[in-house]
Give the backbone structure.
Amino acid sequence: MRTRTGTVAAAGLLALTTGCGAADMTQQASPFAGAQGTKSVTLSVQSWVGAQANVAVARYLLEHELGYRVDTVQIDEVPAWDALSQGRVDALLEDWGHPEEEQRYVEDKKTIVNGGGLGVTGHIGWYVPTYFAKQHPDVTDWKNLDKYADEFRTPESGGKGQLMDGSPSYVTNDKALVKNLKLDYQVVFAGSEAAQITQIKQFAKEKKPFLTYWYSPQWLFRKVPMTEVKLPAYEEGCDADPAAVACAYPHTPLQKYLNADFARDGGEAAAFLKKFRWTTEDQNAVSLMIAEQRLTPEEAARKWVDSHESTWRAWLP
Amino acid sequence: MASITATAPRALPALLRNRAAAKLGLLALAAVVLVPLAQARWTGGAWPEALTVDLTGPLTGVSDWIIDNRDSHPLFLYFFGHVSNAVVLCVRAVYLALLAAGWAGVTAVAAFLAWRFAGVRQALGTAAAFLACGLLGMWVPTMQTLALMVVAVLASVAVGALLGLAAGLSDRMDRALRPVLDTMQVLPAFAYLLPVVLVFGIGVPAAVLATVVYAAPPMARLTALGLRGADQGVLEAVESLGATARQRLVTARIPLARGQLLLGLNQTIMMALSMAVIASVIGAGGLGDRVYQALATVDVGAALAAGIPIVLLAVVLDRVTAAAGDGGTAGHRAGWTYALGAALAVAVAGRLLGRTDWPEAWTLNIAEPVNRAVDWMTAHLYSGVPVVGGTADWAGRFTTWVLDPLRDGLLWLPWWSVLLVVAALAWLIGTWRTALTAVLAMAAIGVLGVWEPALDTLSQVLAAVAVTLVLGFATAVAAARSDRFERLLRPVLDVFQTMPQFVYLIPVVALFGVGRAPAVAAAVVYALPAVVRITAQGLREVDPAAMESSRSLGATGGQQLRQVQLPLARPALLLAVNQGVVLVLAVVIIGGLVGGGALGYDVVFGLAQGDLATGLVAGAAIVCLGLMLDRVTQPTDRRAKKGA
């Protein structure tokens, strides 16, 4: 009895390991993709609304103009690189700069290719609400921040001023910055953009002062006007050593990345995604519709598409 | 489940006290010898630097190796690749079948199954639940989740039943498997998503496998329990008829264990569903993904619209499998055939009419009114409420007066004293083995170099457990005294228990601001139902004779409660504490998404940045923390359930 079980197990293992041949880990799409037997594209969506706006418009045009079925996968940037390399998703439409991943996947493994610029320039910085900056104009220079530490204090910041950071997926040097600029501040991580936005809105409703890590383009600026705090100017390479950073964040032209196979064999969809290129205003308009007017991404995309035909006509292959 | 049960002689309190004193004496003796040694070698209260191991190098190496070899190494090509492919194929097959059946067909077949296994009421409930999913505009995501669930549950049941079979038939396997299953069950799912993702990549295969790890243990445990609990008389009778070992198993032991097996299935389904949402963080799709995406746009209404189908699925599956476990309705063959025919006819009719997709006109938009309600609530409750102050003020006070002192106090304690306290608590409630496990788990946290964030997390857990127990015991006492209140409470508890935590993360931030307070609030909401249920059941099961005699002696209601009910329900109360602790820990970690910081943040960071070193170390520390808390609160007689 025992020997027989053993034989069966061994045979099964053998069949599993040799009989069926090699399984390619890079050729696995989502089981939900293209269920109706149509040609399909899988796009990755990052958690922030700007990324959702890109995907919403790309998806709308792919579906309505080019006849594709589009699936989306919600995933953060770094894992998205990994997923792109494995072919789990076909495109990442908004990347904020990941030199390590670029080296690994684009240069070394050649499984991902650059899909060109998105047309939007991203910038990260420290912001205070404009109503507070108007009352205290000198708060907009980092050298004066310590003076206001008391005003920015919260129960979470332990006697220091609170610098609110967002999602762990964001590019940030804030801990090093606070330390290296010798500021009397504590970095408090909101843990997700949703939590951060909710908290900013609550502060703004009461006209309370706050200091936060934030980035543009971002729709929230229209709801809660914020003014950037000047940090020591950015120079090429000043952020090379993560522990020694003492300068502002750069202005980054956001990039698109495509899976290499998809870029080569993706037909009209790949050609379209490579040409997709719009402005900060366009993106913000769609973002605001999604996040503030609570339209579904599809409705927001339709509204934008209806009124910007000249822009997107040029993207079609 | 309690692996090592101390036979605490409740009837001999004097002896018990003596044994407790002896244990504490021994510990004190050990402390007197060891503490000066430790103090002399490593001064200071914080965990000594010399006793930590930095795993960043090796873990980053492993992570790089996997990424570099994932597409070419035989281990992946011939093993993980096939596993992954098989999962994708199965899920796809189920999903396509569900889509092909159309909404009418799926609803009809589901109602038919519910009717056969659980009766007419459950059938109507099932049909209503499925229609509601469509009505909320969530038909396709619901089918995706269902497809994922079917495969994950089948795999969990297969794995669990195999393990349970082994443990049920062999004592040695039982002993070997127990700690493994124990560990699998106290693991918060959030902690091991990262390694699964690294091997399988994001998406469905990783989600299914993570779910199996999470959901298989109850099946294994209950299978083993059922096999072991089979009536000896029946087994002997079967043996005397000359049955072989295998015949005995198939004809007697397994049928006798039917109740336990179905309870195991029930528990597995519930846990798999709760995982369906957490797995959305790694791209599992379906309803969980909708909830998670709604979270990103701070859209509570949309999150609720995707959360309700999950609750409905959970309630339906729970009731149907529970009713099937209780015996269900025995059917005639003719009934089966007719009903199945009717269900199929509905499916075919739906198909012929070309109505397989849920008609878009039949959807109900609940997002907007819900969002208005949430906005109103946060606008009026956040601050400036006269006399009592707003929720933000409470959160601030809770942070300053409870969380901060607790955290600072724990961090102020010298490391060896924390270990001693853990040892004392675990030993008093369990055996020297449980104490040893607890101490080793706590020490492992120090060795991993995350002593401070772990104590931060611990302080949040302690505060949340305290609040949960106060609220939970009070509610349970009320529920145990009034049948009507309990009936009213039941659906509320169902909803709280099955609603994905992601849905209420945003409302708690809107009410309590960013920080540790909302994490604690979310944890309380999640853990409360289990504590209330277990406690209320324990109080109700108190021997009526004891209650009656105390009443005849003239005890008032309060005296009765304090002096008779609570002492007699002690095992249930201990179990409630234990479950409360495990559940609170699971959510406090997710609290990393709303500013809870500490280990939870590190896990999210690891996932978001693909940083195996940070994520895995934090995950391991959470597991150790869970093990320690479980052992310190492990009652001598624990039921084989997680999440009650």
